[in-house]
Amino acid sequence: MEIILIQDVLNLGQKDDILKVKDGYAQNYLIPKGYAVTATPSAKKVLAENIRQRAHKEAKIREEAQALAARMEGIKLTIGAKTSTTGKIFGSVNTIQIAEALAAQGFEIERKNIYLSDEAIKEIGTYTVKIKLHREVFVQTEVEVVAE
Fold it and tell me: What's the CATH code, domain 69-147?
């Protein structure tokens, strides 16, 4: 079944994507939850018109995100954490602390747009963090974790 996503769905697609999914997934989950609509010819025309009208706004937002990425390039965050004598952190450094450190430097980034590497930050050291500024614009930042 062909559907049009109304909003972003994790591991499936972005808003306004036209996708083919299994009938049961669309009829029993995506459409009743309000995540998608059936891709009829009239729905596709409405989608095309909406995309055309948003194209200019989207380009401006992308340019602003790229400008912010250029400003963020090369910044290094330092986060203090309580540690044991062996260098292990009590707990871990999370996206909330990274977002607060970014806010202290003047960058308001939502914590859901900050991606840590696969392992949690539980030791003193330097780590690379990926920040999503736009669906097409990402920036990588170094986070140094030091003992308090």
Answer: 3.10.430.100
Tell me which H or E stretch contains 143. Answer: strand 137-147
HSE-CB of 17 using CA atoms within 13 angstroms: 13
User: Is this structure's pTM higher than 0.90?
Assistant: no
Sequence-ordered list of residues with C-beta below 8 angstroms from that of 122, at least 6 positions apart, any chain? 88, 89, 91, 92, 93
The C-alpha atoms of residue 17 and residue 10 are separated, in whole angstroms, by 13
How do strand 76-81 and strand 36-38 relate by DSSP bridges? unpaired
3-state SS assignment for residue 88: strand
Largest Cα separation within the chain, whole Å, is 66
CATH architecture of 2-63: 3-Layer(aba) Sandwich (3.40)
- With b meaning 16 or more CB within 10 Å and e meaning fewer, what string describes 103-128? eeeebebeeeebebeeeebbbbeebe
- What are the tens digits of pLDDT across the range 54-96? 888 888 999 999 999 999 888 899 999 898 888 888 888 889 9
Q: How far apart are CA 118 and CA 66, in angstroms?
A: 26
User: Where along the chain do the CATH 3.10.430.100 domains lie?
Assistant: 69-147
Q: What is the CA radius of gyration of the chain?
A: 20
